[in-house]
Structure prediction request, 260 residues.
Amino acid sequence: MDRLPKHVRHDRIIKRLTNDVAVRISTLADEFGVTTETVRRDLDELSERGLLARTYGGAAVRSVAAEPGVHLRAQEHVVERQRIAALATEEIRPGDVLMIDAGSTTAHFAHALARQPVEVTVITNSLSVASRLGVAESISVILCPGDLRHTEEGVFGTETIGFLERYHADLAVIGAGGITVEEITDADAQAAAIKRKMITRASRSMLLADHGKFGQTHFAAVCQARDIDVLVTDQPIPTGFADVWKQVRIASYPSREAAA
Prediction:
């Protein structure tokens, strides 16, 4: 049997963990026709990316409360997130006040927004969002106070929540860790609290999420589908979501191109 490329092994390991709660290094080595050391390196790399939890002699499905830092998350689905970001900027109107939360997809959105000739005010808890938008002369940026978390490149906590309470916004722009038919979730409870507060302080809410978020459940509930006005994604939503999400305006690249 020919040696499987690394990306193929990684895909098969992740798919295996969608059905089995754990896998053994020796089993994977036999299946892939590689050494146990090769599989061990594969598992270590996938663990560093936050895609599984390493165990003695193998790996297991990661906890719903576990998520890699924003820097690592930003390296996944890059093209899809760039498309989402570009499409999301079309929702912005001159003079809007935006609240933008900290996350990998919202950082892509900020990068795209900074290139648009539109005057807006942005309130954010994200250092990445603030730094990307701070270079745009037409955009005023207000950075929230709070407890700095380096791995998330943002500030969180009661000071951040209290600061957001002082403002009203036209649009809350948030990301998510997972989306099910019932709700939107995030691996981090403090991040989920920021998202909830931004939604309540804004007239409209826009969720940015790539296709990999659908069907995923994380630790902390953010809100339900009815709390979102616009969903921007890179693929049409799964069929099973259609009924519950019918009140949400869906913007996705394939559907838009098909209509052109």
